[in-house]
User: Fold Non-structural maintenance of chromosomes element 1 homolog from Wickerhamomyces mucosus.
Amino acid sequence: MTNEHYTNVERALLQYAMSLGVVSEEKLILFHAKSKELIKQKDDQDEQEAIAQERSLDHAIDLINQKLYPLDYKIAKVLNQEKGDSYYVYCNTSEDKPSTAATQFTTAEIDVIKKLIDFIITEGGINESYVIGSSNAIKKVSSSITSYTASQSQQFLDKLVNSGWFNLSQNGKYSLSLKTLTELKSTLIEKYSKREEGGLIDICLGCKDIVTVGVRCPNQTCHIRLHEACENNYSRARRDQGRVCPCGNDWSENDLLPVGESVLRGL
Ligand SMILES: [Zn+2]
Ligand SMILES: [Zn+2]
Assistant:
């Protein structure tokens, strides 16, 4: 690894990932190919740039992450919980988040972000819906920042969605975004503990990332949770043994239960 050089291809990839924050694997593969093609067309392409032509996207990301490591940033590859496709998230890896977003928000606003996250995990974690309704969210904002009017509170929530902290569903429920889950993964696990240890954070049996949208074993005392795509992989890999949970519950006889907003619709 040490004698591999960072080139304009990796530089362009990093710029692109930074500017988007969250980018699909499909889009980043295309961008990487295009960047390599541009360098190839240069007359004065050097030896290192020729080597960069042969790199896969993940290999290039590894090189970028080595550069980012001392700066407490990285580009993480994560699964989109709903659709099961992969995304790259440019994220801060330092401790004490979301305080690191201080440049974008005031201290009072960061406190509200923490309160919203806290509600989503503690209240939303009880039934495993992991959401907060919009009227409740507005109340949380205006009771914390008393100088905000209702419409200012709404604007602030809009800003949180636009800047990628929260997702807003069609039914007006706020949930933790891919970016937030990726950046705060270790912070959330540390603060709220994993469900298997008596806490509120669901960890996927397949990919080991946090599950806030997915499925759960119908056995009430079992802690097994999975993203839907990870459950498909798990069950496909164990086709011969049947769709059986590590706890012994047979999922072909007892339907898996939802995790996420659909809990509220009784699906
Ligand atoms: Zn998973
Ligand atoms: Zn189970």
Notes: Residues 138 and 151 are 9 Å apart (CA to CA). DSSP finds ten helices and nine strands in the chain.
